[in-house]
Design goal:
15% helix, mainly alpha, single chain
């Protein structure tokens, strides 16, 4: 069996203007990370053979 798996991530920068905690922070370069202020999109898929 073959197929296609596609992951699409988007970021809404407008949310920054509505959250009091982020409103006053200056813009910064953001990279992938585990922190809550880092933006990320991760997909994990595990494939194993079927038992017959």
């Amino acid at each position: 069996m073959t197929g296609t798996l596609r992951v699409t991530c988007t970021h809404d920068a407008g949310l920054r203007k509505r959250l009091p905690q982020l409103k006053e922070l200056p813009p910064r370069y953001v990279v992938w990370g585990d922190g809550t202020s880092d933006e990320m999109c991760t997909g994990i898929m595990t494939v194993s053979p079927r038992k017959s």
